[in-house]
Amino acid sequence: MSCSADPEANLKKAVVRVREAAHRGAQIICLPELFKSLYFCQKEEHSNFELAEELPGPTTRLLGDLARELETVLVVPLFERRAPGIYHNTAAVIDADGSLLGIYRKMHIPDDPLFHEKFYFVPGDLGFRAWNTRYGRISVLICWDQWYPEAARLATLNGARIIFYPTAIGWHPSEKAESGESQHAAWLNIQRSHSIANGVYVASVNRVGHEGDRTGGIEFWGGSFASDPMGVVIASASQDREETIVAACDLQQIDITRTHWPFLRDRRLEAYKDITKRYLD
């Protein structure tokens, strides 16, 4: 979806999109990262902290009622106000009965041109979690987390069958002509590789549209997709318009894939102790 500067309008649009997805048979529905606002991290402005909200709060209560009505699981990414001066980039997981199963706080926080997230967010402190929803065990990671194989592996080791990546990623317009195609391909391929290496489904949910200065800003590239345990893209969205996609995930396929490609079985745990070091000097 595209997002505006009006949080209430964004929330109303999200409700429409959730209803659309549920009408088309979706059982687990994920919204894009920070969907209630423009991607405010393009600039460091203290006034943007006013966009944050406590969890649980009004948004999770409203969407909890919607989840219960539609009997769907919802992944709801929000700007969390945890305490004065402590804010997180967070996703709430709401089960199909409307109950709040828990939250995930984004672990990897970027600081790049137009992505000044370290100004706003404290790194997550809840680890890489998984929840038993009515329709399967899922994990949630957020945007920059999607580049880290360690995060996907730990989500898998927690029993996740589907990993959701609510996302806000796009091009700097000045870079699109030279690097746009390769950047998008890298984004797609790293997440498909998480599906393959872990034998799980992956669903990445991005925003779309241009936000920020007309001659700069970010052109969010949409392209939301889902991949199966072999890394095959089973559903994908366009890059230039709002779109709701629905992917059928046969969870039995996970066991079949892992039996034929037993990567988890053949891991050499005793050889991995150095992975917790920053660098091997």
Can you describe what's shown?
The protein is of the alpha+beta class and about 280 residues long. About 25% of the residues lie in helices and about 25% in strands. The protein has helices at about 5-25, 60-70, 150-155, 175-200, 250-260; strands at about 30, 75-85, 85-95, 100-105, 110, 115, 130-135, 135-140, 160-165, 170, 200-205, 210, 220, 225, 235. A six-stranded mixed sheet has the order 7-8-9-11-14-15, covered by helices on one side. A four-stranded mixed sheet has the order 1-2-3-4. A hairpin with a 2-residue loop joins strand 2 and strand 3 (about 85-95). Helix 1 packs parallel to helix 2 (about 60-70) and helix 3 runs parallel beside helix 4 (about 175-200). The longest helix has 26 residues, at about 175-200. The chain is globular, with a radius of gyration of 18 Å. The mean pLDDT is about 95.
Q: How confident is the prediction overall: mean pLDDT? A: 97
The unreliable regions are none
Share of helical residues: 25-40%
Total helices: the number is 5
> What distance separates the N and C termini?
44 Å
| Largest β-sheet summary | 6 strands, mixed
Principal-axis shape: globular
Q: From N to C, what is the helix and strand string?
A: HEHEEEEEEEHEEHEEEEEH
Q: Say how many strands there are.
A: 15
